[in-house]
Amino acid sequence: MPSDDVDVRILRRLRRSTDRFRSALALAAEQVRGMLGPLPDASEVAPDARPLGRFAAGRIDPSAFARLVTRAPRDDAPDQDLLLAAFHTITSLLERGDAAQVVRVDRGADLRDAVGRALTDLGRAFAAARLVAPSTKPAERDPSLLQALPFARWNAAERELAPPLVVHVDGADLQADGLAEFLDGSLLVVLLVREAAPPAALVRLVTPGTYVLQSDAEDDLDAFARHTGPGIAAIVPGECARFVHDPRGGAGLGDRLVLRHLPDAPPRTALGARSARQQAEELLQLAVLAQEPPAALAAAGAHGTSADPIDVLASWLLGRAGLGKLEVDA
Amino acid sequence: MPTHVSAPTGPAEAGHDTGRIPLHGLVELAEHTLEVVSDAGEGAQKCGQGFGALSARMGNGSWTVEIIPAEIQPPPRTPGSASGVRIRIGTREVTNWGDAAGLVIAFNEQVLLSRHRLDALADDAVILLEKRWGESDDPAVLAEWKAALEELSSKPYRIVLVPLEEQTLTVVDNPLHGKNMFALGVLCRIYDRDLDRAREQILRQFKKKSRDVQQANVRLLELGASWAKENLDFQIRVPPGPEKGPMVVMNGNEAVGMGAIASGMELCAMYPITPATSVSHYLGDVFERFGGIVHQAEDEIAAAGVAVGASFAGKVAFTVTSGPGLALKTEFLGLAVMTETPLVVVDVQRGGPSTGLPTKVEQADLLAVLFGQPGDAPKVVLAPATIEECFHCMITARRLAEALRAVVVVLTDANLATGVTPFPRPVPQPDWQATAPDGAPVAQGGKPYQWDPETGLSTRFVPGQPGGMFTATGLCHDEKSAVTYAPHVHQKGCTMRSRKLAALQSTLQPPDVVGPDSGDLLVVGWGSTKGAIEEACERARAEGLSVSSTHLTFLSPLQPGLRAIFERFRRVMTVEINYSDRVGDPFITSENRRMGQLAWLLRAQLLVDVDCWTRVMGEPLRPGQILAGIRAKFGKGADS
Amino acid sequence: MIDTACSLLGCGIDPHVELPQEDYEGPPPRWCPGCGDHGVLAATQRLLHDERLAPERTVFVSGIGCSSRFPHHIRTYGFHGIHGRALPIATGVKLMRPDLAVFAVMGDGDCTSIGAGHWVHAVRYNLDMVALMLDNNIYGLTKNQTSPTTPQGHPSNTQPRGSWLPALNPLSVTLGITNASFVAQTADWVPGHVYATLQAAFRHPGFAFVRILQRCPKWTPGVFRAPAQQMALTEILVHEDGVVEPEVEQYYKTHVAHDPSDLDHARHLAEESDKVRIGLFYKNAANARYEETRRVPVHTAEDKIRLLEAEFDRHAV
Question: What's the pTM value of the predicted model, to 2 decimals?
Answer without folding.
Answer: 0.93
